[in-house]
Amino acid sequence: MKTENLEIVVRSGEGREAFLTCNDYGSPRAVVLIVHGMTEHKERYREFAADLAEAGYAAVCYDQAGHGATLPEERRTGLLAEKGGSRRVVQDALSIRDWIEQRLPGVPCLLFGHSFGSLVARACMIDEGERFDGYIFSGTAPHPGLKGHAGRVLAMLAVALRGASKRSPRLLSLTIGSYNRRIEAPRTEFDWLSSDRDEVDAYVADPACGFVPCTAFFRDLADLALRVSSLKRLTGRLPNRPVLLLSGAEDPVGRYGRAATQVKELLNRAGAADVRSIVYDGARHELIHERARKKVFTDVRRWLERQVARERASVV
Predict the structure, then answer these.
(1) How do beta strands 58-62 and 31-35 pair?
(2) Are 164 and 216 in contact (CB under 8 A)?
């Protein structure tokens, strides 16, 4: 089945680009809007998007603020905004949803967020959850606890003392510095991302990946993590939409598979009606770049199939 790739410029992104992948632009079964993680970019989701397209789905992925190969290296600091960055990235995702609705009106749209992108997607579910027909959270994190509160304070102090756009190796080390600790003889500082060596090497070699984010990014990261993990904030605000949680059993961000259970319990307590989770043995953080990614792709397609069938049944 032939796949058509269209390159578009997203108006909300200050020149940042998004791609749309679909095998039949006129009539996809559904659209999957993909929100990427920290210190990476949209091009890393091409294989996943092509797999979705082969199954009849459209996939849209865009570069989040402060990220992406379209930015010069000196501006690639993860700066979401000088102020209110955690709100800005949510609005960016919703503006892409507007763009999709304008071009594919009436087509179901589901939101896929990975890692930091999963926090953005979870915030979208709280703020305007009815805008999407389902949610997939990959490599998401549970409540950060006291460490999250302390990290937010440190980041806010760093912003005040050094400026929002100043890179912060210290805050990066405090955030991800321990992630390799369960890996025997790691080859790189990013082995925790995937058990596939080629994928790790590609990440390390990519100049648009693995950069040191700025102080404001860590402030906004903590804001999002705390906000989406608050039972008080979630209760009564979740839409009646299905949720799929994907996690690797060797993923330090997801507390080695425990986050899937913890986030599922949180969403259920807040009133979510249909939350499912899958934990992959031997898999690390980036499931769509894992050695077993074909199994992940298949599981996502099967879940999408159920949601699309449910949507059609409700229309009839």
Answers:
(1) parallel
(2) yes
Cα distance between residue 215 and residue 166, in whole Å: 6
CA 39 – CA 50 distance, rounded (Å)? 22
Domain span holding position 151: 4-315
Residue 5 near residue 42 (C-beta atoms within 8 A): no
For residue 214, the domain's CATH number is: 3.40.50.1820
Q: Using CA atoms, how far apart are residues 61 and 106, in angstroms rounded to an integer?
A: 19
Residue 20 pLDDT class (50, 70, 90 cuts)? confident
Predicted model pTM: 0.95
Number of domains in the chain: 1
pLDDT in tens, 134-180: 999 999 999 999 999 999 999 999 999 999 999 999 999 999 999 99
Q: What is the pLDDT of residues 60-94, one digit of tens each?
A: 999 999 999 888 899 999 999 999 999 999 999 99
Confidence of residue 209 (pLDDT cuts 50, 70, 90): very high
